[in-house]
Design a protein that fits this description.
The protein has about 375 residues and is an alpha+beta fold. About 30% of the residues lie in helices and about 25% in strands. Helix 9 (about 340-350) packs across helix 10.
Length: about 375
């Protein structure tokens, strides 16, 4: 599996609120045998997730999702759950959670942290740091790798216009998903297996995390044009309601083709690397990373639950900023060449000094041995 398979989901006409465009995704039939429920965590403090390898992931985590493949569809979530904390006297309580995805007892249910499963995968990219003791890297880099590593994100309620757009959005019959655009840049995709799940989980989009690019576009982008259907009286003419209905459906199909082939093309056609996080009976939960290609194409990280045929029953994505894409690209190139700066520079067709500049520009300058790098740069200038 290398691509996201959205088979069974049909695009419906967009709804617009200022610079926010919401594109519904509907299913003719729900995905059989899988339901999603929400597990609410009290308070607005941070949560710390133990990853099981002496590392922890800390972020704003307002809720978890519970995937239920028992086939009953019964409600499985605990509402208003209060987890962990450092005691009632703590100024900023931090919830303690165990693992990004954790089975619920012996039942056919899995609690996972939506979007954070994907974000932790991005933060873990080559987290161990230099694997060879090159002079260019500091002792701290060799001992601790990229720890601690941090990335910035924005809660949905801080993105201008998003909360109101989600509030006034009219759900379609059979709706199981949404593509969210800001200034007509794809910000996120959200898909669930059943329309009832979507109705309950739609409000959680305002609590999700969004990238820096999305936040900037919401502030500085202009309002986007609304979807309009223009039905022209052709040679055959519109002679009744049946002709009018057929013409309207044709406009809907034309919109879907234009949207899927242009606006959502990068999401659908990008080749991702998938890592399975959990097998759930006939379903599998994966997180995925993009190829970190340069050239301006949008790139997303995310998580997906697929059926046996690889079709997406659940999907949630996070759009990376250009800086995050460049960082992923640089980390991949360094790892490919055993973190040797000279060989990495040769592979990139650039100089040692330029690679050092990129490492520092990516916020990884603290991993370099300043004296060794300065000596090498001085030798290069003198040669």
């Amino acid at each position: 599996m290398t691509r996201i398979d959205l088979s069974g989901l049909v695009t419906r006409p967009a709804q617009v609120w200022g610079g926010v465009r919401l594109v519904p995704l509907v299913r003719d039939e729900p995905v059989p045998g899988l339901r999603l429920h929400r597990e609410v965590y009290e308070g607005w403090g941070a949560a710390s997730v133990e990853l099981g390898d002496r590392t922890a992931y800390t972020s704003y985590i307002p809720h978890g999702f519970v995937a239920d493949w028992t086939g009953t569809g019964a409600e499985a979530a605990s509402y208003g759950t209060r987890l962990g904390g450092d005691g009632e006297q703590a100024t900023v309580p931090v919830r303690r959670l165990h693992r990004m995805a954790k089975r619920r007892g012996r039942e056919d249910r899995l609690r996972f942290l939506p979007l954070h499963l994907a974000l932790e995968g991005y933060l873990a990219l080559h987290f161990g740091g230099p694997s060879v003791v090159w002079d260019d890297w500091s002792r701290e880099a060799l001992r601790r790798g990229l720890s601690p590593r941090a990335e910035a994100a924005y809660a949905g309620w801080t993105v201008p216009g998003l909360a109101e757009a989600l509030r006034v959005f009219e759900l379609h019959p059979g709706q199981c998903g949404l593509l969210l655009y800001v200034a007509d840049a794809l910000a996120a995709a959200f898909v669930v297996p059943h329309p009832d799940d979507y109705r309950r989980l739609h409000p959680t989009l305002v609590e999700d995390l969004y990238g820096e690019l999305v936040h900037q576009y919401a502030y500085y982008g202009a309002p986007v044009p609304e979807f309009t259907a223009r039905i022209r009286d052709g040679a055959g003419g519109i002679r009744g309601l049946a002709d009018l209905r057929a013409a309207a459906l044709e406009q809907e199909r034309a919109w879907a083709v234009a949207h899927d082939g242009l606006m959502a093309r990068d999401l659908r056609e990008t080749s991702y690397s998938f890592e399975r996080a959990y097998r759930m009976g006939p379903f599998s939960l994966y997180r995925f990373l993009p190829p970190f290609e340069r050239g301006g194409r949008e790139q997303h990280i995310g998580e997906v639950i697929t059926d046996r045929k690889g079709r997406a029953a659940y999907l949630k994505t996070f759009r990376l900023s250009e800086n995050q894409i460049r960082k992923g690209y640089l980390l991949n190139r360094l790892a490919e060449h055993d973190w040797h700066l000279g060989r990495t520079a040769e592979a990139l067709g650039t100089s040692y000094a330029e690679v050092v500049r990129r490492v520092r520009g990516a916020g990884l300058g603290g991993l370099l041995d300043a004296h060794a790098v300065a000596r090498r740069l001085r030798e290069d200038r003198e040669s």
